[in-house]
Protein: DUF11 domain-containing protein
Organism: Nocardiopsis suaedae
Amino acid sequence: MQHPRIAAAGAVLAAALVPAAPAAAENGGAAPGEAGFAVGITPVEQGLRPGDELEYTVEVENHSGEDHPDAVIVQLLPPGLEEPHASDEGEIGPMQASWKRGLPADAETFVGVTGHVGEPDPGFERLTTIACVRPRPGAGLVDCASHTMPIAPSPPLGWIAGGGLAAAAVAAGVWAWRRRRPAPPVQERPLEVEIEQVEPAQADAEGERVRHAVADRE
């Protein structure tokens, strides 16, 4: 969870920068600002909960008509963003990410940040981020854009525990039913005795031989 003082500082800084951003540049818009830069912020996913992965894409278009080889793109990170990572050799500092990128005239540049949504402090249940351009060293931030979206509430712990207990109860019931159900009855098959069938003529011949054998012995 983000420290309340850090979260409050992020909110104050965001409040200071957001009014400087053109109204059309809010929530991912890309209208050129006074300095000629169009900045847009786009989250990859919506409806995120604490613990979910968050990814932002920042797009900067240079419509100033001039090359800015020493420009820097700066993004103020949402308070409570955990394990932030900046793409394209960007640098992560306290509450912000920055990229030293040349911005040629009439060209567009993309950078990004990934991280995980932290558990918000009460009153800060939103993800707010701001991206600006520093056209040259020593210059101020210009043509800022902002994006904000609510953090979806986490499921109650009781609901999670109840779901796990219900699954365990179902599994236990299936196991008990298998243990208790009677075994299928064994069907007894009648004893089959094969009796050799003898033809009548063959039986008479056998009887005649037996009588001759008895007479010879006598």
Observations:
- Residues 1-25 have pLDDT under 50 and may be disordered.
